[in-house]
Design brief:
mainly alpha; 15 helices; elongated; disordered C terminus
Length: 269
């Protein structure tokens, strides 16, 4: 049935019942079936919503994941999902935030409730809220000031997620202090965060403001992926994953002045 996609629509009602099956593997297959049906699964949204109102925790979580997997085709469930954002169980709150993010514009009225989760004492919940706001895009712009502090979060995954989400807002919505704060993470102790900062500065089109700091990443001792991201952010042409560490070090990491380098004005990725 999973492989049938939309052709499995005649069995949608029976598939929904499998969301309450005691076997986790069966539940996940049911979620995948509903996701692949796309718009053909919309008529059973109400039945799935009834499951999230049940007392069975496992079934509730599975139903939430199913609605999230259906995305905009489950748009009518946004209100019911939002009611669970204050659920006592962090697993439910995390799943609901993720599901709402997948609903896109249909979840816009609930962006404020999602943003309120940014102050959770659970890093998993904070990250889920960040990712949901990132998918809500323009609807998350009013909450930029609440996202910015999470760039300094003690959890490194939350830091890089916050940086990437801010980059999705676009440079026109970020003040210089926020851009500078992103750039400050070029020296973060975690590789993932440094890469996020490099990629975000490039995506925002402001990497040219931080050339000297980015060049500092071109060290023979730096992580190869950081080297690659630094080169791409500065628009060096013909840089690919196949470039070896030795090539990057030989070409760009000798202890000499970089003042002679002429960087292309057009970014090439």
């Amino acid at each position: 049935l999973v492989r049938l996609g939309a052709q499995a629509a005649p069995f949608a009602g029976r598939i929904v019942k499998l969301l309450e099956h005691p076997n986790e593997g069966v539940q996940e297959c049911a979620v995948e079936c509903l996701a692949r049906m796309e718009s053909h699964a919309a008529p059973v949204t109400g039945a799935i919503v009834r499951i999230i109102e049940s007392q069975d925790q496992a079934a509730r979580l599975c139903a939430v994941r199913a609605l999230g997997a259906m995305g905009e085709h489950a748009s009518s469930s946004a209100g019911q999902l939002a009611q669970l954002l204050e659920h006592e169980d962090k697993g439910v709150r995390t799943a609901v935030a993720s599901a709402l993010g997948n609903l896109g514009d249909h979840a816009a009225p609930h962006a404020g409730m999602v943003a309120s989760m940014l102050t959770s004492d659970r890093s998993q919940v904070r990250r889920a809220a960040l990712k949901a706001l990132g998918r809500l895009k323009a609807h998350a712009i009013p909450f930029i000031s609440e996202i910015v502090p999470l760039m300094e979060d003690g959890d490194h995954a939350t830091r890089w997620t916050a940086i990437k989400v801010l980059a999705r807002m676009g440079s026109g919505h970020l003040d210089q202090d926020t851009v500078n704060a992103i750039a400050s993470h070029l020296h973060d102790g975690r590789v993932e965060v440094r890469i996020a900062a490099l990629e975000s500065l490039a995506d925002l089109g402001v990497a040219d403001q931080f050339v000297s700091q980015i060049l500092e990443q071109l060290s023979p001792h730096e992580n190869p992926q950081v080297l690659l991201s630094a080169m791409r952010s500065l628009s060096f042409p013909s840089v690919s994953e196949s470039d070896s560490r030795e090539f990057m070090v030989t070409q760009l990491c000798e202890p000499v002045s970089y003042t002679h380098l002429t960087l292309p004005t057009k970014r090439i990725v």
